[in-house]
Design a protein that fits this description.
Arc Repressor Mutant, subunit A, three-stranded antiparallel β-sheet, binds S-adenosylmethionine
């Protein structure tokens, strides 16, 4: 841990001064020559490069000369890496460093202009407003997002695998906050009958138009782009799927609810229409699991926690546990029904899950008392573990188990659970908690 903050700050330094592009892809260059090419002090350059070498970036094959290794050369062969690192260095790192000051100043807040990133950048504007005012920053953010999508855990192949797109035939898919069309293009390539509407703010949509121009006719003919804010009611009523990929995690609950509520009427209008939320689902800690978690403390949870903290520091938003999603959905309602979670799929190796959501009328929902009957006390289906799991955390196949904590715990955490990964869909419908308007839980 001691070295990590220096690694990041050195990465920021070499990206800022464009050092990597001054190093030849083959052979090495003396520090003195590199210093004058990059216009930086040679002693600082030497210290920074040697620190980075301890994290497997760059190497020194000849004394006092520096060269690329296979990791650093990727920053040259794939310029997206530099965009990614520049964004992390310019926004994410300073935001993380100002987290303490943000809490000191505002305590608990969900205002988008009271954030650690705002303190770091010296602005009282919400991050997206700050970014969208500058075409240069908008381009950097779009490039960063494109690169995030290229990463294994958030790769677009998980979007393709996470839902039965083929069953939609020639339906329309609306990509809400679809940025520069990367998702729409990937889906259009994989499913030649689908048509797409991509909605976003003016800057990303302007870039999206340029991106689309470069696509073959077979792709661009099926994608239309619109400037539309998801804080206004969804104007496209005829779609079969409304996709929100990495959208809700940018927003605190109040705004997330407004975004969802703006899609209630299009989902109600067509019983087959679906909302697909693709976001991280944080692991929920069940009683008795604390020790397991300490023992199994692993990188995959760290990656999810990084995402959660980044959302907090950037937007006062958060990644959510499954029960927090079902809470939000059950609050997205009108007099006759509400949104319900139908299915959750976490494709292998993905850090994001696909949550399939529909509108359901209260009078069509199963009686919650009946829905609970078949459940064996203390069990939950956890498809990611490939089977039944005791609420006390251990996998098990007998009927013994601890008592449920209360009705709320079952409804929120346990009933909704199915996954392609687990191979068996445990479609418990997820409607228990939503089916009881007026009942105060827990
Ligand atoms: C984290 S990015 C996700 C982009 C894309 N869905 C993806 O999966 O890569 C969030 C997107 O929300 C967009 N956005 C922010 N505020 C918006 C608003 N009020 N209406 C529509 N889009 C918005 C941003 O411009 C950005 O493209």
């Amino acid at each position: 841990m001691m070295a990590q903050y220096q690694h990041l700050s050195c990465l920021r330094w070499i990206c800022h001064f464009n050092v990597l592009s001054c190093i030849p892809l083959t052979g090495s260059v003396p520090y003195s020559e590199l210093a004058s090419l990059a216009n930086v002090p040679v002693t600082q350059l030497r210290s920074v490069c040697r620190m980075l070498m301890t994290s497997n970036l760059l190497c020194e094959p000849v004394p006092d000369e520096v060269a690329h290794n296979n990791v650093s050369s990727m920053f040259i062969t794939n310029p997206g890496f530099t965009d990614w690192a520049t964004f992390i260095a310019q926004f994410s790192m300073p935001a993380a460093a100002h987290m303490t000051e943000a809490t000191q100043k505002w305590g608990q807040t969900d205002k988008k202009n009271e954030t650690a990133v705002g303190l770091a950048l010296g602005t009282d504007k919400p991050l997206f407003d700050f970014i969208s005012e500058s075409p240069k920053l908008s381009k950097l953010f779009a490039a960063y997002m494109k690169n995030v999508q290229g990463g294994d855990g958030t790769n677009l192949r998980h979007l393709i695998k996470g839902f039965d797109w083929a069953s939609l035939n020639d339906a329309v898919v609306v990509d809400v906050g679809g940025s520069t069309c990367s998702s729409a293009i990937a889906l259009a390539q994989a499913f030649p009958n689908l048509r797409f509407v991509v909605e976003d703010l003016p800057e990303p949509i302007a870039t999206a138009r340029q991106v689309l121009e470069k696509q073959p006719e077979s792709i661009k003919a099926r994608i239309t782009v619109h400037v539309h804010s998801f804080f206004l009611p969804q104007p496209c009523k005829e779609a079969q799927v409304y996709l929100m990929r990495m959208i809700l995690h940018d927003w605190p609950d109040r705004e997330a609810l407004t975004i969802l509520q703006n899609h209630l009427s299009v989902l109600k209008h067509d019983a087959k229409a679906r909302l697909l939320i693709m976001d991280t689902v944080l692991p929920s800690l069940l009683p008795g699991q604390a020790e397991d978690r300490m023992r199994d403390h692993n990188q995959s949870e760290a990656v999810l926690r990084v995402r959660d903290l980044t959302m907090m520091q950037s937007f006062n938003a958060k990644e959510r546990e499954r029960s927090q999603f079902t809470d939000l959905l059950s609050q997205t309602s009108d007099a006759e029904g509400c949104l319900v979670l139908k299915n959750v799929v976490k494709p292998p190796c993905s850090v994001l899950s696909v949550l399939e959501v529909a509108y359901e009328r209260f009078d069509a929902m199963p009686d919650p008392a009946l829905t609970l009957q078949p459940m064996t006390a203390g069990f939950a289906f956890d498809a990611s573990l490939g089977g039944l799991k005791l609420n006390n955390g251990s996998s098990h196949s007998s009927s013994a188990g601890s008592e449920p904590r209360n009705y709320h715990d079952y409804a929120q955490n346990d009933l909704v659970s199915s996954s392609m990964e687990g191979g068996q869909a445990s479609q418990m419908n997820g409607t228990a908690q939503q089916s009881m308007p007026g009942v105060v839980f827990g």
